[in-house]
Amino acid sequence: MTTSDSITNSSPASSLVSLTTVCSLLFSLALLLVAIFVSRHLLPRSAPREHLLLHTWHLFDFLIHTVFEGSFLYHSFFSYSTLRPASPSGDYPHPASLITSSKAAFLGYANRRYGAAHSVSPTAVLWQEYARADSRWGNTDTNIISIELLTVLIAGPLAFYICYLLQRQLLPSQDESSNTTTSADSARSSNSNNNNNAAKLWFLITILATGEIYGGFMTFAPEWMSGNTSLCTDNWMYLWLYLVFFNGIWVVMPGWCLWIAWGKLKEAFNPRTENGEFKRKKVR
Fold this sequence. Notes:
single chain; 284 residues; mainly alpha; 62% helix; elongated
C-alpha cells in the first residue's frame, strides 16, 4: 500500500524516450523471449510450425496478462494517495481534487485516489509511462478495471491451459511410436481422447481469441465516441507505438487464431479423403 500527495505523469518533449520507456520495451521483449525459449524447450523438434507459434503466442499472452496487467490491478486496488480536506479559506491548489459528496467514490473511499499514478514502485512507473498515451491506466477508470479483472483472472489462466492442451496434443504420437504392440481397443480409446482434447483446445482458443478482440473494442470504443479525451494522439510514439502497435498485436494474433480454428472446424465437419480433398458431410 502506497500513499502519496501528488504524482505528475507528464514529461517534456525533450525527454520523450526516457529510461522508463526503454525499460518497459525491454521488459516486454524479455517476456517474449521467455515465451519463445520455453515453447521450444517444451515442444518436440518435430512439432509443426503452426503448433509452435500457437504455443508461443498463448504463453506470451499469459505472461503479459499475469505480470503486466496483474500489476495494474494491484495498483488499482492497493496503491492510493489520501486527499487533504477542503480548506475553509479555499486556498487548496487543486479544487477539482477536493473531497466532495457529489462524486462517486471508488471502493467507497471518498478521500482516496487509487491507481498506478499514486505509487512509486517499479511496476507503477511502467504504468505511469503507458498512462502518458492513455491516462485511464494511471488512475481508476472503472471500465478499464472491469475489463482487466476478466483479463487477468480468466484470460490469463485460460491462455496457460491452452498451452497445456497444445502440449498434450503431441503426446499420443510419441507414445504410439514407442509402443508397437498397442491393441485395437486401446488405439480406439486413444483416438477418442485425442479428438476430445482437440475439440476442447480449439473451442477454448476460439473463446479466448474472441474475448481478446472484444476486450480491445470495449477498451477504445468509449474513447472513440467521446472525442479521445484520454488518449494522446498528437505524439507519434504514444500513438503508433503504445496505442496502435501494442494494442494491435491483440487484434492481429487473436484474429489469426480464429482463422486457424475456423480451418479446424471445417476439417471436423468435412473430413479429407485419401487424395486430400474435403469430403462433404451432411449435418442433421
